[in-house]
Amino acid sequence: MEVILIANIVELVTQVIAPAIPQPFELVDVEYEKMGSDYILSILVDKPGGINVEDTADLTDIISPLLDTIQPDPFPAQYMLEVSSPGLERPLKTREALEAAVGQYINVSLYKAIDKVKIFQGDLTAFDGETLTLDYLDKTRKKTVQIPYSSVAKARLAVKL
Fold first, then answer.
1. CA torsion 131→112→96→12, rounded to 10°?
2. I need a surface site. Which of 25, 94, 155, 158 has the fewest CB within 10 A?
3. CA 30 to CA 120: how far, in whole Å?
């Protein structure tokens, strides 16, 4: 399956379900991927204090019928719908999510390396909408890196071990 097709499905699903997600819930991410022989549509939702099994069941009842209204059907094969919490390592997909993550420990993967490094993990000390400032450990030395937002392939909260 082509990457463009997956991106289109994710975008389409996001447009259809985002307006229907009730407060205080927040749509964190939509992912569509093949696992083994199955296709899985994952809808990651959160709320202050986290979500429980009852919340995911209620949200599934809201989301599932909406997916059936998308015409023409964008899914190339049958899929399983999974509504769940983003967990401790929640993705940071938007500028707003990164702004909210200032002061937290994050993992950032880059499209192209900065000083021969493509993955940084450390404390996000600042984000002005264009540049992330990250304090990290290089072996035992504390360093700071400025990362252009346009270079970020993926960012997520991380668990400090």
1. 150
2. 94
3. 24
Helix (H, G, I), strand (E, B) or coil at 154: strand
Cα gap 15→81, rounded to integer Å: 16
- Taking the CB of residue 44, how many other CB atoms lie within 10 A of it? 20
Name the token pair of 140. Answer: 């035992």
DSSP classification of residue 140: T
Q: Which amino acid does the sequence have at 147?
A: I
What's the rounded Cα separation, in Å, for the pair 123 and 160? 10
Q: Could you tell me if 118 and 112 are in contact, meaning their C-beta atoms sit under 8 angstroms apart? A: yes
Q: Distance between CA 155 and CA 90 in Å, rounded?
A: 9
Radius of gyration of the chain (CA): 18
Q: pTM value?
A: 0.70
Cis amide prior to 19 (ω within 30 degrees):
no
Residue position matching structure tokens 């993990």:
121
User: Rounded distance, CA 124 to CA 99, Å?
Assistant: 9
